[in-house]
């Protein structure tokens, strides 16, 4: 929903099915360090159709940023599938008290 609204505002195509989750993952907020979060997300995404991303400049949109593990894994998968570039936009960032 957020991606569609932004896409309409900036007049760019939105593809909500190019990147798909391949398996269930644990909640990232329940994990205490980046290593756990990266391991949780490793292999959690795949590109459904390489033609949809190959050579494209991708804007990856997420509602919030915590450790960056989810976005990093998604960006890696998109780049490996041939995306020309991946930029990330988040609505908010988690602030940790530690």
Apparent shape? globular
**What does the main sheet amount to?**
2 strands, antiparallel
Low-confidence stretches: none
> What is the total domain count?
1
- What is the N-to-C order of secondary-structure elements (H for helix, E for strand)? HEHEHEHE
- Strand % is 15-25%
Rg (CA only): 14 Å
How far from one another are the termini? Answer: 33 Å
Question: On the 0-100 scale, what is the average pLDDT?
Answer: 92
Number of helices: 4
> What's the count of strands?
4
Helix content: 25-40%
Which features does this protein show?
98 residues; alpha+beta
Describe this entry's structure for a reader.
With 98 residues, the chain is α+β, with helices and mostly antiparallel strands. The protein has one domain. It is built from four helices and four strands; from the N terminus they run H-E-H-E-H-E-H-E. The protein has helices spanning 2-10, 34-41, 50-53, 69-80; strands spanning 19-21, 45-47, 57-65, 85-93. Helix 4 (69-80) links the parallel strand 3 (57-65) and strand 4 (85-93). The longest helix has 12 residues, at 69-80.
In short:
The protein is an alpha+beta fold. 34% of the residues lie in helices and 24% in strands. The protein has four helices and four strands.
